[in-house]
Amino acid sequence: MDKYEERVRNAVSAIRSEREDSINGALAALNDLEVTELVQELCVSIEDVTSGKDVDRLLAAATLPLPDNPLTLVDAVDRKDITALHAYANGDFVTLLASMLALIASLQEAGDRI
Q1: pTM assigned to the model
Q2: Under 8 Å CB-to-CB from 9, ≥6 apart: which residues?
Q3: Fewer CB within 10 A of the terminal residue: the chain, N end or C end?
Q4: Residue 2 confidence (pLDDT)
Q5: CB neighbours (10 Å) of residue 23?
Q6: Which residue blocks in the chain are alpha helix, DSSP H?
Q7: For the residues 45-65, what does the mean pLDDT come to?
């Protein structure tokens, strides 16, 4: 497991724990990562959690907060459309990062229960 995968996994676990101190620490650990590589790892994580799954069912079952328009985000990742990801977050990387992490955590949690 490389450092990108490990740190994304840690951030998702922290979000799932809903413990603010864990979330803050895990997010801080993302600060020194290269942005392009980080976005790639987040896309891979979204693909992993949605591949072969009924995404609508996962979204309906999610109990953790979902980002706005989660299907738009999933679609942009599926199409590997960087322009759509940029548009989704109105060019704000922090919004994109938070949305992608929230989506992964929510869908993982829902997938574990259904």
Answers
A1: 0.94
A2: 1, 45
A3: N
A4: 95
A5: 18
A6: 3-17, 20-28, 35-50, 55-61, 70-78, 82-88, 93-113
A7: 97
Residue 13: inside a domain: no
Place of tokens 């693909």: 47
CA 49, CA 89: separation in Å to the nearest integer?
21
Range of the domain at 38: 34-113
Residue 69 resides in a domain: yes
CA nearest neighbour of 43 among 108, 106, 101 = 101
Q: In angstroms, rounded to a whole number, what is the distance separating the alpha carbons of residues 111 and 20?
A: 23
Q: Which two tokens stand for residue 43?
A: 């896309």
- pLDDT tens track for 2-19: 999 999 999 999 999 999
Please write the tens of the pLDDT for every residue from 72-92: 999 999 999 999 999 999 999
For residue 6, is it within any domain? Answer: no
**Nearest residue to 57 via CA among 112, 110, 102, 103:** 110
- Confirm whether 23 is domain-assigned: no
Number of domains in the chain: 1
